[in-house]
Amino acid sequence: MKLLTLLKDLPKHTLTGSGQVKISHLECDSRRVLPGSCYIALKGTQADGHAFIPEAIRRGACAIVAESPCTQEARDGKVSWVEVNDSRLAVSLMGAAWNGHPSRHMSMIGVTGTNGKTTTAYIAHSLLKQSWLRAGLIGTIAYDNGEEITPSTHTTPGPLELEHLLKEMLENGCRGVAMEVSSHALDQERVAGINFNVGIFTNLTQDHLDYHHTMENYFQAKVKLFEQMAADTKSRRKPVAVINIDDAYGRRLAEMFSGRMAVKTYGSALGADFRMLVHHATARGSEYELEYKGKSYLVRVPLIGKFNMYNSLAALAAVICAGIPVRDAIASLQNIPQVPGRLELFTHPGGAQIFIDYAHTPDALENVCKTLKELCSRRLITVFGCGGNRDKGKRPLMGAVAARLSDACIVTSDNPRSEEPLSIINQITAGMPEGRYAIIPDRARAIATAIDQARLGDIVLIAGKGHENYQELSTGRIDFSDAKEVRRNMRIKDEFTQA
Ligand SMILES: CC(=O)N[C@H]1[C@@H](OP(=O)(O)OP(=O)(O)OC[C@H]2O[C@@H](n3ccc(=O)[nH]c3=O)[C@H](O)[C@@H]2O)O[C@H](CO)[C@@H](O)[C@@H]1O[C@H](C)C(=O)N[C@@H](C)C(=O)N[C@H](CCC(=O)O)C(=O)O
Ligand SMILES: Nc1ncnc2c1ncn2[C@@H]1O[C@H](COP(=O)(O)OP(=O)(O)OP(=O)(O)O)[C@@H](O)[C@H]1O
Ligand SMILES: N[C@H](CCC[C@H](N)C(=O)O)C(=O)O
Ligand SMILES: [Mg+2]
Q1: Is residue 229 over pLDDT 80?
Q2: Nearest to 215 by CA among 362, 70, 117
Q3: What is the DSSP string of 276-311?
Q4: ipTM of this predicted complex?
Q5: Which residues are annotated as part of the binding site for meso-2,6-diaminopimelate?
Q6: Which residues contact 86 (CB under 8 A, 6 or more apart)?
Q7: Which of the ligands is closest to the CA of residue 116?
Q8: What is the mean pLDDT of the chain?
Q9: Which ligand gives the minimal distance to the CA of 113?
């Protein structure tokens, strides 16, 4: 493709050299540059890609996109140079053009918010598939291109990988896509080339302050998704914001955008467009009354917890806005899959119930503990830790929540990364009353102990790692799965009980 074609959608930029040069591939990593590549230099957290421009030219790049003016070396080598204000924005827009703007040909549902993105995207994906046969999924656990499912590298991949994935989805016959849009992705313009039809905002509570520093910055990152949609003139249909107005930040967001774009609100608040009325929870699922356009519908979802009613309501609202008939969407909710590691139930031979869940924020842990406590006839035993090299402020808050809502807590390691496991644990227990917890840093041993202690009527919650099949230690990643540990310990207890 010609360089000039790739620059069509770019905001103000300066081209030095020829725009007619043929590009063989777009690349942000100098180590992967090939003859004919266009290298886009990005300023990152670990490195500044501008430092690798000479290497990219040496490897045969025929065009450079950078936030600095053209160098003599590039002029001498007849390398074309595009100076831009924001190379992250440039790579996303160029990536979309390179792949033929696949998002413009599918119904794109983007999900943002602190908690519930993966669950909501899974539900929406299942509803889309049941109505339209093929649909794509992009998120924390896996990418589904309509034909093949691969484990994810990021919740929202980098723009080049993302646009390529969307192109595959379109080629595979997907009519719709449900994708998670992380705050990191929004801040780094990873989704700037995507035309979203529906944007969901689930909620906003503390997380990722290691990256965003303040809740306001974190909120503003989320706002970018809706700014982008409000400014979109290329989507086939008018974009719709689907916003939870039972959340304070959601109410703020809805106010910011009403009048600027179509806003559909959901929640139990008076005036919500998709309003959840009477609700009822059982150990196997939930029921609620949905009020929409003056009509009332009974909604049944095979998921437990009030927060999951919100996730299902968000997904329902989104697919209805994308064009799926209300009754079809509601009926399809009966067939949604278990989301791996999200309140995943394992039943113990001794009669206890063991749940694996991905709660790794104070709000998530509070919701999950409350949900399980209501279902529990005896003790709630919570096993959890916090990830290393991430938001430290949430550690004592998670400790306080777990201690307040559980009958027993075992504080253990999550992914310590380069931090000292005991130091993370001490920051967690700083929020817990003395005597309300045990410390077992080895996660496998912590799980084994909780299962061993559990009796008929008890619930064991193993929180924080959900679907993850590894543990990230200072020495690197090791294989580790909460689900495997649970199964192993259930077997041991079963053999012991039968002996
Ligand atoms: C903090 C962060 O998000 N970093 C992401 C970012 O990396 P970066 O820009 O900081 O990269 P860098 O290492 O500083 O390098 C800068 C540039 O120099 C280039 N380079 C570097 C070395 C070299 O020799 N040559 C060269 O060209 C690099 O390719 C890069 O383009 O861009 C990279 C490529 O897209 C990502 O892989 C990387 O994700 C890291 C691994 C990460 O852990 N990200 C997490 C925090 C994240 O994004 N998480 C969210 C989920 C959060 C949630 O659950 O809500 C996600 O969407 O997954
Ligand atoms: N709507 C919700 N409100 C509050 N907590 C929720 C909600 N949905 C899920 N949770 C809790 O948050 C955890 C993570 O849920 P999920 O994976 O769906 O969210 P996510 O936003 O994708 O998270 P991440 O950003 O880590 O990928 C769940 O395991 C559950 O404990
Ligand atoms: N998406 C989340 C995942 C956290 C999962 C938890 N197990 C941890 O490692 O902290 C994050 O990047 O903060
Ligand atoms: Mg997720």
Answers
A1: yes
A2: 362
A3: EEEEEE-SS-EEEEEEETTEEEEEEES--SHHHHHH
A4: 0.96
A5: 390, 414-417, 464, 468
A6: 67, 189
A7: 2
A8: 96
A9: 2
State which of 358, 391, 467, 482 you would mutate to test the pocket of ligand 2, scoring each by most atoms of that ligand within 8 A of its C-beta: 358
Residues flagged as binding site for ATP: 113-119
**pLDDT tens-digit profile of 23-40?**
999 999 999 999 999 999
Q: Average of pLDDT values for 408-418?
A: 98
Q: Ligand 3: which residues within 6 Å by Cβ?
A: 360, 387, 390, 414-415, 464-465, 468
H or E element: which one contains 183? helix 183-187
**Which of 316, 355, 359 has the alpha carbon at shortest distance from 451?**
355
Model confidence over 344-402: pLDDT tens digits? 999 877 789 999 999 999 999 999 999 999 999 999 999 999 999 999 999 999 999 99
Rounded-to-integer distance, Cα 181 and Cα 191, Å: 8
Nearest ligand, measured from the Cα of 184: 1
Question: Among residues of the chain, what percentage have pLDDT more than 90?
Answer: 94
Is it the case that residue 423 has pLDDT exceeding 80?
yes
To test the pocket of ligand 1, the residue of 120, 153, 188, 194 to mutate (highest count of ligand atoms within 8 Å of its CB) is: 188
| Integer Cα distance of 121 and 112 in angstroms | 10
Is the pLDDT at 283 greater than 90, yes or no?
no
Mutate to test the pocket of ligand 3, among 115, 356, 390 (most ligand atoms within 8 A of CB): 390
| Separation of alpha carbons 486 and 473, rounded Å | 21
Single-letter code of the amino acid located at 418 = S
For range 265-293, the mean pLDDT: 93
CB distance 143 to 125 below 8 Å: no
465 lines ligand 2 (CB under 6 A): no
CA distance 144 to 314: 21
Q: How far is the CA of 312 from the centre of ligand 4 (A)?
A: 15
CA distances from 387 to 230, 283, 414 (A): 36, 30, 5
Residue-wise pLDDT for 247-261, tens only, equals: 999 999 999 999 999
Question: 367 CB under 6 A from ligand 2?
Answer: yes
Question: Is the distance from CB of 375 to CB of 368 less than 8 angstroms?
Answer: no
Q: How far is CA 105 from CA 109, 168, 242, in A?
A: 13, 12, 21
